[in-house]
Amino acid sequence: MPTVFVYWAPGRSASQKKAVSQRIYEALVEEGGARPEDVLIIFQNIEDGDSARPGLKAASSRITED
Amino acid sequence: MPTVFVYWAPGRSASQKKAVSQRIYEALVEEGGARPEDVLIIFQNIEDGDSARPGLKAASSRITED
Amino acid sequence: MPTVFVYWAPGRSASQKKAVSQRIYEALVEEGGARPEDVLIIFQNIEDGDSARPGLKAASSRITED
Amino acid sequence: MPTVFVYWAPGRSASQKKAVSQRIYEALVEEGGARPEDVLIIFQNIEDGDSARPGLKAASSRITED
Amino acid sequence: MPTVFVYWAPGRSASQKKAVSQRIYEALVEEGGARPEDVLIIFQNIEDGDSARPGLKAASSRITED
Amino acid sequence: MPTVFVYWAPGRSASQKKAVSQRIYEALVEEGGARPEDVLIIFQNIEDGDSARPGLKAASSRITED
What is the C-alpha separation between A49 and F60, in angstroms, rounded? Predict the structure, then answer.
């Protein structure tokens, strides 16, 4: 540890993943006092049909109506 | 939050996922007091070969034998 | 499976948890075709200081300004 | 419960998964007092590009230099 | 990786946790080909009120009635 | 999403958590193209007795012996 899981939509390139994990790593070491060799980052790519925010539309239209 | 993860076998249709996530969302808002726009549901589809319940067979046969 | 994790803020009562888990269970069995005895729901209570949405304030003020 | 998640690289055979899950199951029942029918093991196969240990190289080269 | 999460009820002693994690570790190295230094096991202790299997009672009474 | 889980040892201060989550957020937005309002970071504090790396000692002493 620290062990980090990032759940997001697929489609990020290898270089994006590298840049994101490098900066998460730096945040944990520099701000969180983590030992460099202990940081593990795992990306989980969640297909569009496998995530849902059913209440978002209602909230958005409420905001739009204001 | 609430953030919900559902781990299950693959094969559910888009409309099944929609119905399940809608009802989970309603449960969290109506019973749990969650704000509608905060509810996120993520489905993770676990292939058959990637889950195991080694103790189930033993328990089942014990029940059957009774 | 289905195995369900609900991450949310602490403070829900036992009866709220029971009502939420009952309805999640019904959603999975009735809409998702799950076997009743296979459904497991786990609540994880995340203290206020242990979650962050740093980009929410920016988005909210943007909306308010409109 | 116990519910166990194993995050690892893909490529393990069905028989390897069976052997690993059988032994995890035995550990939980024999050492942890779990009921046999309650043990569920889920494998999540994380592709090489979806995990990163940015601090490992630095640590390794430090060790090699010693 | 392998990174392992064990979700179970609280109350296991330190020596039980040590025995369980040692045997999970051995399973992953001996059967799964994992590198010893990469294996991390994390226990998450789920309070009784924070897990639910609403369909279990129904199934149990059905079995008892047979 | 992106939804991020950070599993680490307890003891980080509120300001450390704030700094870490701010920088993880920036990494996801600036490098990963995430929408600011969608980023959620959750910290899970794993007590010392609830994590184990049984193979680390063996590896460390092997390195020390070299």
Answer: 44
